[in-house]
Queue: 2 jobs
Job 1
Amino acid sequence: MRINLFRIIVLSQLSACLSLYGQRSAVAVIGQSTDAKNDKTNVEALLELTDKTHRSAPAQAVEYAEQALEISRKLDNAELIARSQFALCSAHLDALNIQKSIEYGNLCEPFFEKSDNKERLANLYNALSASYFNIGDTKMTELYSDKCIRLAEEYGMQEVLNKQYYNRGAILYYRGDYSQSMDYAFKALNLAKKNDNPVYAAACYDLMGILSQRMQEDRNAIDYLERSRRIYAADKNYEMLGYNLSNIADAYRSLGLADSAFWYFRKSLDYFKSIESPHGISTAYSGLAKCHKEKADYDSAQIYIDKCLKMGLLSESQKDMALFYFEAGEISFLRKNFNDALNYLQKSLPMARQNGFKETEADVLLHLGQTYGVMGKSDSAYRCLIRSAALKDSLNKIDNVRQRAYLLAEHNVKEQVNREMETEQQKKVLWLVILGLCLAVILIMSIFIRTLSGRKNKIQSINAELERYKSDLENILKDKTRELVLSEQQIYNLSNNLPHGAIFRIAFKNEREGETLFVSSGWEELTGQPLETAADSVFFFQNKIHPDDSRELLHQLASSIRNRSGLDLVYRFYKNNTEMRWFHVRAVATADDNGLIYLDGYQVDETDQKYFEQELMAAKEKAEESDRLKSAFLANMSHEIRTPMNAIIGFSSLLSGGQLPAHRHAAYLELIQENCQYLLRLIDDIVDISKIEAEQLTFRSEDCRVADIMRGVKEYFDPIIQNKYPHVELWVDESSENTSLTIYTDVFRLKQIFLNLIENALKFTPKGFVRCGHTLDRADSVHFFVMDTGIGIAQEYAEAIFQSFRKVDQHSGGTGLGLSIVKKMLLQMGGAIWVESEPGVGSTFHFTVPLPSRN
Ligand code: ADP
């Protein structure tokens, strides 16, 4: 690396120096130089060609320079000869024919020293210094370098001085005096900056980078190399950019950053490939081989070193080939291909020796010795190792004065370094303590964070589980809510559609304090009260309850609340204050944990049912009564029929026996007739009532005068009274109101009515009178009456006696059908009948018969 670097930089600067001669269009000029007059021009052109080609094709450049020298000698032009010799010096330097370079340099030196062109002389010193350097002659190198510097300083040749400072730095670098080398590099850099020469500045940065790398300040190295890289990149100097990248890669390699090193070497390779620089390409391959070697990937290292050798041969660089073969030998040795190693090292050795690379030669001999040793060739190994050691010694030989100065300096430096190291050591200890503390803090923090993150994870997992539960619960809640809503809806519909009733829930604190929590809408229809009133107070309707039921309801309610028991009651309620309704309430009381008692129940209107029940009861009673009456009737009938029949049979038997005195015959026959009449009457009554109940009784209406009817009644009864009721008088008001009053009715039925009523009156009046008549107190009917002074009728029988078979005294004579027949006939005729009576005083039977309408 160091030799490569030096060569490149020196060549570039030489190139720059030569361009100062201002030779241009060399090829064009040579093409024009066809005669002797132009030989001088030809020399100039050849010199320019040398300048143009010495970097890319040093061998060609040598040829151009030799031609120039030849022509110059022919021309016998001292200046041209000297310049041609200088061109040969430079070209041979580039072609690494160092001895030749020195030889030509020495030849032109006297002429240049005499010449006024001090700049040219300075450049010669520079070239000779470089040449001596290349053969490892430190003394001569420094001699010419000093000369060059003095001259440049004396004549203010900034650029030459710049170049020389740089070269001096490079020389010191190769001598291993890195700190002095760095001083010169800085000087050179300052000059380059002052002269605004970025190319030199870049070269200085390159040198400083490599120096830093040697001083194990790899980060600084990379920093310097990056600076030069930017300059090369801006300058589009791809060749230098390639070398620069190789140097950066090498810095990364020594930092142990193999990946970065690989990347930079590959980048470097790309640039070299783009400009088709065989030397650059082989340099990059060599770097890649070294990277692989350090990664112990010897196979890959072998591949790259092979490529490197191939390209190195193309670059015609003997100097580099010595190095490449040396590296190839080293890699083969590591791959245990000792024969190959031997082969490569044996190729490298003469090249190194020929080019004066004493350090490389020593390294090659060392490796040769090792290889021979491994191969069991101990004599050869010994010889190589001895020579290597001798060479190393000679390389490190420094004259005594310098040695002493150096040792003294080294001693001072060492003391300084020791002091610094002590301070550094203390600092290190301090830093170590701080570092330790920091690590402890980081450790504690990381444990804390890990614990926290563990907890966080746990919390997160618990949260996730809770979320899952929450979502499950929400779903369940949704389902239940839906069910509840459905259920509520059903209950709502059910409660509100309850026919003639309402359900309710009342909360009681005690027997007296209650609040209606819910009552269904049927309440309004049920009670005729707005729904809100039910919610206001549970006792609001107390004053609407029938007084007979109110007490019982409150009693049951209190008992139910007290005993948490049921309530079941029918009570009467005044709907809209007037209409009495029957309500049936059923409820049950339960208590909650807070002591509140809930009365849940329903109330329905049972009025219709109640009335129906009452009717049913009445009908039942009536049926029972009727049954009882019928039984009584049958008993009566048998009695009523048997009595006259017995009389008829008895008297007729007496008559037919022939022993009865004659005067008794008439009386007995009369008795027989009388009983027959009675039987007939009884049968007529039964027939009549049967007809009436079968609705088969017909009326034959006709105009008849009321007076005539009354007279007929009187005529009918007079004889009967005389015979049967001598203690009773019968008064018939024949013309009491209007003698000419005529009514349109069934006379026979009307007389039958009078007959029944008057017979009863006579029958139940032991003494007094019976009176009958009529009045016209209404325009639409005639009012008849039959009054007696008999035994009278108790008020409770006033209605009942008009029912069939009903008698006040069931043992009294008679069928109990007469009044029933009378009432039914009058109803059919459009009239009515009622009785006014006082027991022991007498009775008056009133009845009306409608008058015919006037139209
Ligand atoms: P009866 O054939 O038994 O008389 P009625 O139907 O004519 O049947 O009379 C029914 C009952 O009414 C009688 O049994 C009697 O108790 C009572 N009654 C009817 N008329 C009179 C009256 N003028 N005074 C007292 N009681 C009477």
Job 2
Amino acid sequence: MTSANHRPIAVITGASSGIGAATAVALHEAGYSVVLGARRTDRLREVAEPLGGLALHLDVTDRTSVEAFAGRIPEAAVLVNNAGGALGADSVERADDERWRTMWETNVLGTVRLTRALLPVLEASSGGHVVNVGSIAGFETYAGGGGYTAAKHAVRALTKTLRLELLGRPVRVTEICPGLVETEFSLVRFAGDREKAKAVYHGMDPLTAGDVADCVAWVVTRPPRVNIDEIVVRPRDQATATAVWRGR
Ligand code: NAP
């Protein structure tokens, strides 16, 4: 459960930007040694180096990559399944198979693969914890969001299933469900279109990646008997996925 410097190890997927990168900093500050995974290893190293963390290439859509990643992690206390995101805003009637498949592969199967691969080491630690970064898209829907909301609904279902399946075993399970957070999320969703991405946060004050990282750090630092099942965290300016006050 501890690294050579006696800090417990936290593994964070999708740590090359946004919420994952901020979570790496927050968990380092909370006393963890961090192991970070993502595809952009240059960006990952920039996050890991100042923290003395380990940056490892990881593509959560690729089983071989997940197995190689997990093979480098003989011990861990925390797994943050954060890698994910949305692609496009297709209506159901115009759904693009490839985009929908990638969203499913990344958000859903990625979470399954990492959890399956690391559960043995989490369980072997004196108190393991799986934190899944879901979304309010896991229990709300919006027009044009079908591919993403379907995937995050699935993340929610599998998180609740895992909680049941691990009952009586020393592994906690938490879902963090953020509303609008200003990261690279919208830039990725709209294939690099900066204007479209900026418009998502226009006139309102979104969460920062650090706000969500604070939630992750808080849940993992509760006493081992305490399982925070879920946290829903939104900007004050957002009441639902579609009710957003843009008067700023
Ligand atoms: P982001 O800045 O785009 O970060 C996404 C991260 O996921 C990146 O580090 C990316 O790294 C990684 N990733 C994507 N595909 C991957 C793959 N196949 N294998 C490994 N890593 C992969 O966006 P973010 O907002 O921080 O998103 C983090 C999580 O929060 C996602 O699950 C997202 O659905 C969720 N979320 C975001 C918001 C929001 O408004 N931003 C709201 C609710 C929930 P590489 O590209 O380097 O692989």
